[in-house]
Design goal:
Shape: globular
Largest sheet: 5 strands, mixed
Strand content: 25-35%
Radius of gyration: 20 Å
Structural class: mainly beta
Number of helices: 3
Oligomer: single chain
Distance between the termini: 61 Å
């Protein structure tokens, strides 16, 4: 065989994994509030990357105190199905203070929860493609308690806005997570 070998075509580009939305969501993960509870609050939004494009495979974990201020949580979020060994989901009655929701194809997410007592915010952990370490942030609920929070008050006004949920309807709030860029969400560093 003579001649110059034909170069191999380049391999296709690949997004850095892991892809958290595949195996970690569980039935009822976004439903922190017991089914039909009259004080249910819906919090929804999008996750955006640095270019402003939606992130379709992010995962958000929500941690919060209960409406009575209890921070210990309750078992019941990750119940196992005794027959299949898979996740049976929530029992639909117990408020556990924990939720997990994946974004959809358009980067949207939504949870149904109860307003926390003792803290004016929901704690959030964000997992997304290309992130080697998950990110921590807070969703501050509108009101005087949020305005008095020391962490929120310590931020410049324009950065503070990235942590504030805004009302979009009765008992409905919006909170977008921006992973990079000029409107990047404030992320907390825990060491």
């Amino acid at each position: 065989m003579t001649g110059t070998p034909t170069p191999a075509p380049p391999t296709p580009a690949q997004t850095v994994g892991p892809f958290y939305g595949y195996a970690l969501p569980f039935p009822g993960g976004p439903d922190l509030a017991p089914a039909g509870h009259p004080d249910t609050l819906t919090v929804h939004g999008h996750v955006y990357d640095g270019a402003g494009a939606p992130v379709p495979d992010a995962l958000l974990e929500i941690w919060q105190p209960g409406p009575d201020g209890d921070r210990s949580g309750a078992p019941g979020s990750l119940r196992k199905d005794p027959v299949t060994g898979g996740h049976a989901g929530r029992d639909g009655v117990t408020f556990t203070g924990f939720g997990r929701v994946a974004t959809d194809a358009d980067g949207r997410w939504a949870i149904r929860t109860l307003p926390p007592a003792g803290a004016p915010y929901l704690s959030v952990c964000v997992f997304a493609r290309g992130l080697l370490h998950h990110l921590f942030t807070r969703i501050y609920l509108p009101g005087p308690a949020a305005e008095a929070d020391p962490l929120l008050a310590s931020l410049p006004t324009e950065r503070r806005a990235t942590l504030l949920a805004t009302g979009t309807g009765p008992r409905t709030l919006r909170f977008d997570v921006r992973l990079q860029g000029p409107e990047e969400t404030v992320f907390l560093d825990f060491r």
